[in-house]
Write a structure and sequence with these properties.
It is built from 5 helices and 5 strands; from the N terminus they run H-H-E-E-E-E-E-H-H-H. Helix 1 (2-14) packs across helix 2 and helix 1 (2-14) packs across helix 3 (81-94). Strand 4 and strand 5 (75-78) form a beta hairpin. The protein has helices spanning 2-14, 16-26, 81-94, 100-103, 105-117, and strands at residues 39-42, 51-52, 58-61, 69-72, 75-78. Helices cover 43% and strands 14% of the residues. The longest helix has 14 residues, at 81-94. The chain has a 3-stranded mixed sheet, covered by helices on one side. Strands 4-5 form a two-stranded antiparallel ribbon. The two termini are 26 Å apart. It has one domain (2-117). By secondary structure, it is α+β, with helices and mostly antiparallel strands. It is globular and about 50 Å long. The structure holds zinc ion (ZN). Residues 87, 91, 101, 106 line the site of zinc ion.
Length: 127
């Protein structure tokens, strides 16, 4: 499961939108001038599902979110690690406000954008 998640994260970050995220993360330096680490924790029962710190460098992945369903443009879709990471990294890299999920900003600009760049066309349409 760790390998599957790592593979998905690597794929996401290799896309054009993923590279925008990499550039943002690489610009974040600690007080010593070193690039801040991006940390992904895996928690079987986080109590909050998968979540991230908006504008931050931390994400908690709850693996049971894998294969949960979403409303897609061409019908029901199922969350992959790619889609979960694309969503959370959007929050982390670009610090969208607390309501942006409802406005679909992060979903359109990051989640669906990366998934399209990976070849998945069933865009999420609702939060
Ligand atoms: Zn969100």
């Amino acid at each position: 499961m760790r390998a599957q998640a790592m593979n998905a994260l690597t794929q996401d970050l290799a896309t054009p939108r993923g590279q925008d995220m990499v550039n943002e993360f690489m610009s974040r330096l600690d007080s010593n001038g070193s690039v801040e680490h991006v940390r992904v924790y895996i928690d079987a029962d986080s109590g909050l599902g998968t979540y991230s710190v908006r504008g931050g460098n931390v994400m908690v992945l709850q693996p049971s979110d894998l294969l949960s369903s979403y409303s897609g443009r061409t019908g029901v879709g199922f969350f992959s690690y790619d889609r979960i990471f694309a969503h959370e990294m959007g929050h982390m890299a670009f610090g969208n406000n607390a309501f942006d999920d409802y406005a679909l900003t992060n979903i359109k600009n990051n989640e669906n954008a990366i998934m399209e760049q990976l070849g998945y066309t069933n865009d999420r349409m609702f939060y």
